[in-house]
Specification:
Shape: globular
Number of helices: 1
Radius of gyration: 13 Å
Number of strands: 4
Helix content: 10-25%
Distance between the termini: 21 Å
Strand content: 25-35%
């Protein structure tokens, strides 16, 4: 495994055996006021963000393609504690 020293944000680990599948859906609307509280390293073609908005939290997944396009997906809204647990599981490869 190659260790990348230039990255300062965490990388999402490869999906582990027995991982759980998150439900990803199209964003209902643009929510520019959501606060990003954690994010995965942008050196990958898929970047994840843990976001907070109005007392709830969710995870956003942005997939970038080689042509500069992007596709955005989001999870359902949860309490911040539930979202933080899900975020940790995502980074560990326990959820995808």
């Amino acid at each position: 495994m190659e260790i990348i020293t230039d990255c300062i944000s965490p990388h999402v680990n490869q999906a582990q055996e027995g991982h759980m599948q998150l439900v990803w859906r199209q964003p209902a609307k643009a929510e520019d006021r959501a606060r990003v509280v954690a994010w995965s390293c942008p050196c990958q073609s898929t970047v994840y963000e843990l976001r907070r908005l109005g007392g709830q939290s969710y995870i956003r997944r942005t997939e970038y393609d080689d042509d500069g396009g992007r596709k955005i997906y989001e999870t359902y809204r949860w309490s911040y504690n539930k979202a933080a647990e899900t975020w940790a599981a995502l980074l560990a490869g326990q959820m995808v």
